[in-house]
Amino acid sequence: MFIRSCRLRAAPLVMRALSTGNEAAAAHQNQPQQKGDPAAMNTGHDGDYGSPENFEQHWTTFFANCPDEFELQRGLNNCFNYDIVPPVAVVEAAMLAARRVNSFATGVRLWGGLREKVPTAEMYRQYREYFAPMMEASGLVAPEDLGRE
Question: Which pTM value belongs to this model?
Fold first, then answer.
């Protein structure tokens, strides 16, 4: 029983390594990781952006090229996982992507995530005021417009 459970826990590492198609990555992921090893703290995101400009450029490009709703939702999850409020350009690109893939629910979810991410209600109000014309034109709404508080 113990051997069987060890094999089950090791399988995801091997599957992730095989799915990349990179032998160097496969070799690295199958090595035991030590506490404090940067590879052990991999969050599954695209990595260190180095600057807010790089973050903005990466996510703006990602949302502009987002092919479907699944990728849009995955991108929103990853983007909102960082300790940074997404810049205006990123929010705009995500809104346009939600409209392009025709996902009203993802547009609402975007605003719910942004509301949770901003540090103050005043900052959220400023985002809402700035994007009001775009929201009106695209038909997207925020959760509070639907009665969700």
Answer: 0.66
